[in-house]
Amino acid sequence: MTVRMFVAGILGLLWGWQAQAAWVDRTEAVMGTRIAVRLWADDVDRANAAIDAVMAEMRRIDALMSPFKGETPLARVNREAAARPVPVPGELLKLIHRALRVSVLTGGAFDITFASVGYAYDYRRHVRPDDAWVERHLDRIDYRHVVLDDTASTVRFSMPGVRIDLGGIAKGYAVDRAIALLRRRGIRQALVSAGGDSRLIGDHRGRPWYIGIRDPRRKDASTAVLPLADTAISTSGDYERYFEAGGRRYHHILSPWTGHSADKVRSVTILGPDATTTDALSTSVFVLGPERGMALVERLPGVDAVIIDAEGRMRFSSGLKMPAGSRQKTAAVSVE
Asked: Which of 155, 192, 176, 165 is nearest to 65 (CA)?
């Protein structure tokens, strides 16, 4: 073999490798939302197999935690837990524990029992309960009605009529599970999103990922674009599921204290160490409003926020106002 043939062979191998290495993208509808995966892989077949595994994991979590599908463990809890302790898988019990810890952290702003009133809203059909009905049922919203038994792995409710919904934390949890799965498969650069909850592995091939924050009043416009790497980001907005009636916007983020749509902000974006945390905190800060919500964020190491208030003003946490390269606080907090 001549030198020229040897060099040509090496170049051919390199060209073949480069031809296989690529960004691979896919979107599917799971968990009632849009699941999107984008990753860089040296082998497209392996990349597609990894994305298959992500989508399968999303469907598994939906089958475990959806309150709308009649035979899921969470649906059984809502049907039976007021009458007796209901056995649940350990994974579901742990996530409910985590949700209750967020309730304590946020002084009740995050409360999975919001569903005790929230089930009466139908945003597609523009249906809402009247104020008198909400007032009669408001005492059912209280995270302390949820009683867990770790030894027996059961959930019960201390009051009739209580329901729970993990919609404020389950999609973030599913994103974290997907990220862990990709890392085990050797993926080093990826984005996984489930609706408003996303998490990034690494950077975007030597550049940051650029993640836009949607303008709450213009569907196809962004109010800010953040350069990010190796982080989680979640946005909660009053534009996700809503209808308008009588000059008022009724959306799915309910205040546990009133049973009505929280109305002090238009959207909240949280950056933090994992998507389970950012998902729950974006809901919490939305309910707390701009002043109390930002005060909570400033107490949490490794967590930052962008809040668009009811007047459309944008507010940034102190970590996002620092010079480039110094966004991270001294340590990251995760609500485990």
From this structure: 165
